[in-house]
Amino acid sequence: xxxxxxxxxxxxxxxxxxxxxxxxxxxxxxxxxxxxxxxxxxxxxxxxxxxxxxxxxxxxxxxxxxxxxxxxxxxxxxxxxxxxxxxxxxxxxxxxxxxxxxxxxxxxxxxxxxxxxxxxxxxxxxxxxxxxxxxxxxxxxxxxxxxxxxxxxxxxxxxxx
Length: 161
Hints:
Elements: H1 2-14, H2 16-28, H3 38-58, H4 85-100, H5 104-133, H6 135-143
């Protein structure tokens, strides 16, 4: 589990910190915050991302990085509400920055980042997970939406929607 924790920590700094931190800073310079309530969206997105990384280590015994995948399908925590909480959290962080700085370039970047992540999920992650976890993943996909969270958390005993 230590190896998974170290790998996840490295991947956290290499991926979400770059996509939701370094690139938005490069685009906007993070100057002149104008709409402070948007900081709540940034904090919420960050909490979702961090919790998802922790869940990958604890529940999946692996990392979110494709080169060091989990041993088990991760379906607990925020994954009970939406299949891609990490990506949803990253997009929330970027949208929060677009609102905080009232920056249309960041809004455009948030849309482009989501489109890139959605394409990666559709054309890489889903086929890999379907092959690796088979019917368990199919059941999960039927019950939990990819991008818009459920109102109530899914439990394995629930019937697929």
